[in-house]
Input
Amino acid sequence: MLLLIGLGLSLKDVSLRAMERIRGADALLLEQYTSFLPSGYVEFIEKEAGKAAVRLSRQDLEDNVAATVGRAKESDVAILVPGDPLVATTHHLIINTARKLGIRVEVFHSASAFTAAIGESGLDIYKFGPTVTVPFWSENYRPTSFLDAIGRNLENKEHTLVLLDIDQKAHRPMGLDEAVSIMRAAEKARRGGLVKDDLKVIVVANAGREGQQVRCVALGKAGELKGSLSGKAIALVMPAQMSFAEEENLRSASA
Output
């Protein structure tokens, strides 16, 4: 059997039910290229399980997914995933591959940065449009389409959750200053008039984790938060028109 287990956001977020299955699994595989776990979390899991977790690469779960999943034909294999395995990071390819191979799959859900960031912002989850990601740019890769999606959401009076990319080589989250810089460069390239200094953004750092911070600032002053947010996983919320209750919730969250 293949066990797809969400570890949540903070240390020990993993459910008791999931931990029982982790202890009983024949092998533990850890996917850590799509998100981050708090310091010491992997060691906690390994100690509780009495076995080491083998680190997986993106290639293991994409190009070589059949070989990886195939290990669960004859034994119980647990793939450990930060957050929730089917929310912010969707692993349906793993599930579909396993089913095609005749392997039973059991999914254990947990807390996700996707829902935590929205919830901690104080805004109504039902008023959010499509989520976007600000990607790292390279010499031959400079997408700007995320700004188009934010613009469409604002036109529809919908809030936008903006996730920041992960540097796979350095295994670190994009910093707030980097995100703002890329957004400004994208705006310059497309000349759409969306990214302005007075654009309101809600910065949610370490959502659902120790050291969580929520701040509502104008984009032009976001750089002032750089020092206090260093090293933290950051999500941005671009609010559209807010209700009185949402404004009150936001004031309370960012106080």
